[in-house]
Amino acid sequence: MARRSIVFRLASDPVCYLWSGHFDLPVSADALDPEGAIYKGAGELLSVPALKQLINGAADRLDFVVSGVSAETIRLAGEDRDSVKGALVTIGYVEFDADWQIVGPASWDWRGIADTLATSNEPTDNGRERQIILSVRSTDTRRSNPAPAYYTDADQRKRSPTDAIFSEVAGISVGVTRRFGPR
After folding, report:
1. pLDDT, tens only, 93-114
2. Alpha-carbon dihedral sign for residues 84, 44, 53, 29
3. Among 6, 103, 136, 180, which residue's Cβ finds the most Cβ atoms within 10 Å?
């Protein structure tokens, strides 16, 4: 029977360590933390969305939510907002043995880059609900890696049915000069 818990690492200043259990969890050294680290238990307060891999150029953007936080934590999140933007976010898991003792270092499954840190402080029927929302893009999301473009009439007409800008592309080949425009 596998006993696993999620670990969340945000490389802000200072580094934020959270895990999906309760109390503090000492995790042994690995490539990200050569001296090990102590992860703070967030329990069910931490919402980790389903993680996906990059497929066909559709990179992920995820929102991580910590709810039930204090007003002081909301204030601190606002102060630390600048150190969060652009910070590396890593998600992984730790495994436990039959006695719930941690076995080895964390295994890292997903990497992302923090974009925005937002806070929410809304009144509810039971008082106030305070949340910290961290929007993260996968490390594969870059403008320098656009999806391939095909300059064919059929592809252009899928995007814009009345646009005939590429209607003559099929007649172009290497070493041939073709005049465009009215004949």
Report:
1. 999 998 888 888 899 988 889 9
2. positive
3. 136
Q: How far apart are CA 64 and CA 84, in angstroms?
A: 13
In the three-class reduction of DSSP (H, G, I as helix; E, B as strand; rest coil), residue 72 is classed as: helix
DSSP calls for 97-114: -TTS-EEEEEEEEEEEEE
Q: Which of 162, 161, 159, 178 is nearest to 170 (CA)?
A: 178
Total tally of structural domains belonging to the chain? 2
pTM to 2 decimal places: 0.66
What CA–CA distance (Å, rounded) separates 100 from 54?
34
Task: Please tell me whether residues 134 and 155 are part of one structural domain.
Answer: no
H, E, C per residue of 145-181: CCCCCCCCHHHHHHHCCCCCCCCCHHHCCCCCCCCCC
- What is d(CA 53, CA 63) in angstroms, rounded to the nearest whole number? 15
Identify which of 23, 72, 54, 67 has the alpha carbon closest to the alpha carbon of residue 145. 54
Structural domain for 157, as ranges: 147-177
- What's residue 58's pLDDT? 55
Residue 136 has φ and ψ, to the nearest 5°, of -130, 140
Residues 134 and 158 in one domain: no
Residue 160 to residue 164: CA distance in whole angstroms: 9
- Can you read off the two tokens belonging to residue 117? 């840190």
